[in-house]
Amino acid sequence: MDIRTELQKSQLCEDFTDNQLTELMTQITVREKHYKNNEILFYTKEATKIFILVNGNVAIAKNTISGKRILGKSVSERGEITGEIYYFSHRNPFWDYAIALEPTTVLEISGIEKEKLQQLDLTLQNRLLVNLLKSVTRKFEYIGEKVRITSEDSVRAKISNYLLGLQQEDGSIELTETREEIADYLDITRPSLSRELGRMQKENIIQIEGNKVIILDVVIFDAFIE
């Protein structure tokens, strides 16, 4: 793997010049790391690095007292950042850990401390901070959307709002997560998810073909969206 190329394509180094990327790489340590499915990348209370996704899927997660796993924001796009919120935050985090949802490769970055950042060119410092802020902002938007969806009263309303968020401009919907992961995200059980999807198909509201979902009755579907 060409680590420099992966950094150049990442959210962290967006709009960097070649010289700026070279300067940053002299101050940080970057390692290629591989994780198996369900392997933990880091615990949020002990975050000492940030991570850039090369391939795979990583989500933050929390276990309830009963042992149920709840999934938070996941990163599945090449170049996305994860771990930055917990690296820079000194507050007690709600989420417990970050976990690989499939075989995953990341760049593990250490050395982004205040003292080292201050040694960088001022323009580079500003660019780096803007990129980190953009990444954090995306996550806050995601959290707001998750709260809105999971606060819905019915399972059908949760599913409908979730599917709406995946709908493309042409109306197509493609599921990129397993049913277990979707159920975790919606804070419902997998059997409840499967039952309700089955009912929605039986009532000809939706049609599921593999990982694609087709809305058959837009009027009824929209009735569950707020």
Mean pLDDT across residues: 89
Number of helices: 9
CATH topology of the largest domain: Jelly Rolls
Give the strand order of the largest sheet, numbering strands 1, 2, ... along the chain. 1-8-3-6
CATH superfamily of the largest domain: Jelly Rolls
Q: Biggest β-sheet: count, sense, barrel?
A: 4 strands, antiparallel
Total number of strands: 11
- Beta strand %: 15-25%
Taking all Cα atoms into account, the compactness measure Rg is 20 Å
- What is the CATH class name of the largest domain? Mainly Beta
- Please provide the ordered H/E string of secondary-structure elements: HHEEEEEEHEEHHHEHHEEH
Label the overall shape: elongated
Keywords: Activator, DNA-binding, Transcription, Transcription regulation
Protein name: Putative transcription regulator Crp/Fnr family
InterPro entries: cNMP-bd_dom (IPR000595), cNMP-bd_dom_sf (IPR018490), Env_Response_Regulators (IPR050397), HTH_CRP (IPR012318), RmlC-like_jellyroll (IPR014710), WH_DNA-bd_sf (IPR036390)
Domain HTH crp-type: 153-219
